[in-house]
Amino acid sequence: MDVSSDPYLPYDGGGGDGIPLRELHKRGTHYTMTNGGSINSSTHLLDLLDEPIPGVGTYDDFHTIDWVREKCKDRERHRRINSKKKESAWEMTKSLYDAWSGWLVVTLTGLASGALAGLIDIAADWMTDLKEGICLSALWFNHEQCCWGSNETTFEERDKCPQWKTWAELIIGQAEGPGSYIMNYIMYIFWALSFAFLAVSLVKVFAPYACGSGIPEIKTILSGFIIRGYLGKWTLMIKTITLVLAVASGLSLGKEGPLVHVACCCGNIFSYLFPKYSTNEAKKREVLSAASAAGVSVAFGAPIGGVLFSLEEVSYYFPLKTLWRSFFAALVAAFVLRSINPFGNSRLVLFYVEYHTPWYLFELLPFILLGVFGGLWGAFFIRANIAWCRRRKSTKFGKYPVLEVIIVAAITAVIAFPNPYTRLNTSELIKELFTDCGPLESSSLCDYRNDMNASKIVDDIPDRPAGTGVYSAIWQLCLALIFKIIMTVFTFGIKVPSGLFIPSMAIGAIAGRIVGIAVEQLAYYHHDWFIFKEWCEVGADCITPGLYAMVGAAACLGGVTRMTVSLVVIVFELTGGLEYIVPLMAAVMTSKWVGDAFGREGIYEAHIRLNGYPFLDAKEEFTHTTLAADVMRPRRSDPPLAVLTQDNMTVEDIENLINETSYNGFPVIMSKESQRLVGFALRRDLTIAIESARKKQEGIVGSSRVCFAQHTPSLPAESPRPLKLRSILDMSPFTVTDHTPMEIVVDIFRKLGLRQCLVTHNGIVLGIITKKNILEHLEQLKQHVEPLVIRYIRSHN
Fold first, then answer.
1. Residue 4 has what pLDDT?
2. Which of the residues 286, 288, 555, 790 could staple to 591 if both were Cys, CB 3.0 to 4.6 A apart?
């Protein structure tokens, strides 16, 4: 399948390791023997010709990097700089610049991430309020800012002021009544559709990679996969603009996941300013890990949670040095965001809460029940969303992304407007659900029947019977819960920037608030029950419904993503509720256990598998008893393994082999008779080296002998000049024997980041195992399909 067939599917194009598993059976066995790359642990890699061949050692699009070779290149570069730094002051300066470049690039990434996040927050708030009205005194103010300076607001209607005009007041001159309601309804739908249409159009025309969350692709890129343009400047620009539009349209999505993508784009762009990172794909991924931490830091105002998120959820390779730089990038990004103060509350956190009541041991039971709900929601959402995304890919509906976005936005806007809780911006909804009912709260969620004997306002308001406003709010919240569950399934994955953190937290917060109010009323009316009698006296403030909303939000997000440690830290940083870390831990762990009972994959891993990305999940256990011989290519029915000989092939022979096959590399053997392994040569390096030799070296023709050996064999005097290609040969390719258990092979691939390894028997090359072969094998085992391999090696022993 070609990339151009659908510009939104980066995983459906290219060659090598980028071929989706779902396409393997269509391509035949000949293609599946793709040799993925080279493993080099020797210094021969950089000990090239006197004049290095430009382009050798680089990677094609939709291919996997060679981690071992990249680390070797970096060590050699470091040795070269250290050996020269004492020669002159200039070399010493270059050495210091190289040493500090890592800190400089993460500083720039943090600064850019914080600034862009602040800009996105401010613009999204303004455009969200634009759906309801406009501030005549200052058009750039949102609703809250417009009424800050007004002296005509009242306590009950603090959001109403003469400076803020609804669209009904501006168009038909009515502030109340059916006509006003209908006009505001129409304008709400108009703006929602306009924002959604503009967002999807910009994505489709300018940057197809700007759609979606971005986290599945970031995880795949950090594991070593190359997706050209995914972290480019056009993607950054369009994702920033369309993220604001998508959030303002009212769709059931969040900006937190896409902010990680935005931060990684910043990290990728800034890494090109420093040769240490621009020329080394493995080093560049260290910057991207730090950028991921900065992205979560500005998304939630949670710098420590961002570092843990990068470590637990997205990073494939996370050395201690990257931990420090991730911490620093998150710190810088959070500092910039705090300086911008986009929320206008002089706080970094998004949902700051201040509860006055401690939690009690009995409450662990409803907290665990919320964890069960979160796990069930996560399992349901993953299955439903993946089923819908798979249907979108396999039907004509997926060919009309603009129409899909317009339909989803129209349904969302039409259903959301009548319900005040779905009409609210999702972040504002979560904030209201988290908030404890104090004496100054005017929300209907706080419409309790007050004790007429209370003479003074205190922080700890005792539990009271619910009033009509609370019961009305519960019904509205139940409808909002159903609406959010359904719409989030269909919204995540459409062709606009769409995050999942905030919608999942909203669903959990709604469920948690309903449970909290139920427990509160139970404690009020049945305070003499043994479960309440010891700690909940009459007139005491025992239950905090906002706490239940916070725990429910964490549980539902944990059920969807299967995060644990980083999620708990993010939530308590997000709310400032450090005292309630035990309930959060209990709920998150329960949601993970319940979700894992239905399937161990989180939503991001499920989308990685759906898209066919070559990602080996380190969390997945391999429990089968297959051997390397069962997985290696070629199989008995396949053509023999394509190999190069050490000094018996001509330039024309190699060019013919390259043109006739699609493999990405070839084992080099001593001779056809001995079949003993000498090394491994990449297809790309061979092509570049031959083209370069034809241009720069005289006498290189099609009949020139190609020599991979250290010494050129003696040739007849009339023979054309031989071509020496030992410099591009990997002299130490990674090998395993045919009897090596696949459990060990899979572990080697995960921990070393291999592209392929060769399979030998007594030093004789038998075949090759690529990363894609392993993924295909794992997929077959998941589906309980026996590998179609005849273990002919065992039969010979």
1. 38
2. 555
pLDDT of residue 266: 96
Question: At CA 122, angle to CA 118 and CA 124, rounded to 5?
Answer: 115
- Please check whether residue 231 is in contact with residue 620, taking contact to mean a CB–CB distance below 8 angstroms: no
- Give the angle subtended at the CA of 541 by the CAs of 538 and 543, to the nearest 5°: 110
First vs last Cα of the chain: how many Å apart?
42
What percent of the chain is helix, strand and coil (3-state, nearest 5)? 60, 5, 35
Q: What is the CA radius of gyration of the chain?
A: 30
Tokens 């570092």 -> residue: 307
Report d(CA 730, CA 57) in Å as an integer: 11
Q: Is 139 helix (H, G, I), strand (E, B) or coil?
A: coil
d(CA 195, CA 770): 45
Quick one: pLDDT at residue 348?
A: 64
Please report the sign of the dihedral spanned by the C-alpha atoms of residue 400, residue 404, residue 406, residue 407: positive
Q: What pLDDT does residue 238 have?
A: 95
To the nearest 10°, report the CA torsion of 742, 748, 753, 756.
Answer: -50
Q: Is residue 652 within 8 Å of residue 260, measured between CB atoms?
A: no
Q: Minimal CA–CA distance to 197: which of 242, 263, 259, 133?
A: 242
Nearest CA to 265 among 247, 239, 304? Answer: 239
Task: Identify the bridge partners of residue 55 per DSSP, sorted by sequence position.
Answer: none
Mean pLDDT (whole number) for 223-248: 93
Handedness of CA 511, 516, 519, 521 (dihedral sign): negative
Three-state secondary structure of 102-113: HHHHHHHHHHHH
Per-position b or e across 466-500, b if 16+ CB within 10 A of its CB:
beebbeebbebbebbbebbbebbbbbbbbbbbbbb
- Angle formed at CA 652 by CA 648 and CA 653, multiple of 5 degrees: 50
- Closest among 261, 221, 256 to 238, alpha carbons compared: 261
The encoded tokens of residue 208 equal 């197809």
Amino acid at 447: D
pLDDT at 411: 95
Rounded Cα–Cα distance for residues 755 and 777 (Å): 15
488 DSSP β-pair partners: none
Q: State phi, psi for 498 to the nearest 5 degrees.
A: -145, 115
Give the pLDDT of residue 25: 37
Calculate the alpha carbon distances from 316 to 221, 260, 311 in Å. Answer: 9, 16, 8
Predicted confidence band of residue 527 (pLDDT cuts 50, 70, 90): confident
Read off the pTM.
Answer: 0.85
Lookup: tokens for 635:
């199989």
Q: Can you give 409-455 as a three-state secondary structure string?
A: HHHHHHHHCCCHHHHCCHHHHHHHHHCCCCCCCCCHHHCECCCCCCC
Decide: helix, strand or coil at residue 229.
coil
Residue 790 has pLDDT above 70, yes or no: no
- Would you state the pLDDT for residue 48? 36
Q: Which helix (H) or strand (E) holds 346?
A: none
Q: How far apart are CA 561 and CA 375, in angstroms?
A: 10
Tokens of 393: 């890919």
User: Dihedrals φ, ψ of 187, to 5°?
Assistant: -65, -35
Say whether pLDDT at 83 is over 70.
yes
State the DSSP code for 540: -
| Biggest distance spanned by C-alpha atoms of the chain | 115
Look at the block and give the residue holding tokens 């980028």.
18
Dump pLDDT digits (tens) for 356-398.
778 888 889 999 999 999 999 999 999 999 999 999 888 877 7
For the chain, give the number of residues.
797
Tell me whether residue 280 is exposed, middle or buried, using C-beta atoms within 10 angstroms of its C-beta: 0 to 12, 13 to 18, 19 or more: buried
